[in-house]
Amino acid sequence: MSTAGQRLPEGPYDAVWASPGRVNLIGEHTDYNDGYVLPFALPHSTVVGGRRLDRPSWTVWSEQTGETVTFDGTQKVEGWAAYVAGVVWALREAGHDVPGAALAITSDVPSGAGLSSSAAIECAVLAVLLDLGGFDVPMAVRPRLAQRAENEYVGAPTGIMDQSASTLCRAGHALFLDCRSLATEQVPFDLAAQGLAILVVDSRAPHAHVTGEYAARRRDCEEAAKILDVPALRDVEPDGLQAALARLDDEVMRKRVRHVVTEDQRVLDTVAALRSGDARAVGPLMTASHSSMREDYEITVPEVDTAVSAALRAGAYGARMTGGGFGGCVLALVDAERCAAVEAAVREAFAEAGFTPPDAFVVTPAEGTHKIDYAG
Ligand code: GLA
Question: pLDDT tens-digit profile of 261-274?
Answer without folding.
Answer: 999 999 999 999 99
